[in-house]
C-alpha cells in the first residue's frame, strides 16, 4: 500500500525536520518545503500530495495562511492542516482546514493526518 504524501511547509529547518519525522512516524510520506513559494512549485510538479501541513507565519511572498487559501482554490482535494504558535480561528482558514497549535506532538499530528485523509 502506498503511503499518502504530505507536504510539510515550514521555514525553520529544525522544526521542519521534526515535523517531517512526525509525519513519517505517523505512517505518511513527508515532502519538505521551506516556504510557500517552494510549496507551490512542488504542488505544480507533483500530483501525489494529499495533505499540506503548513506553518502560518513564514517569510516570502505569501504566508502559510494565504498558501492554505491558494491550495484550496487551485488544488481543492488537498487537505489542509495549519499550525502556529499564535492564535488562529478556523474562520481564518479555508473551508475544511484544520489547525494544530504549536507546540504539537506526534499524537496531534497523527490524529489530524488520519482524520483528513479518511475524509478524502
TrEMBL record:
Hydrolase found in the keyword field: no
Keyword terms, alphabetized: Phosphoprotein, Transcription, Transcription regulation
Record-listed 4-aspartylphosphate modification sites: 55
Protein name: Response regulator
Annotated Response regulatory domain residues: 5-117
Gene3D superfamilies: 3.40.50.2300
Organism per entry: Bradyrhizobium quebecense
Database matches in InterPro entries: Bact_response_regulator (IPR050595), CheY-like_superfamily (IPR011006), Sig_transdc_resp-reg_receiver (IPR001789)
SUPFAM superfamilies hit by this protein: CheY-like
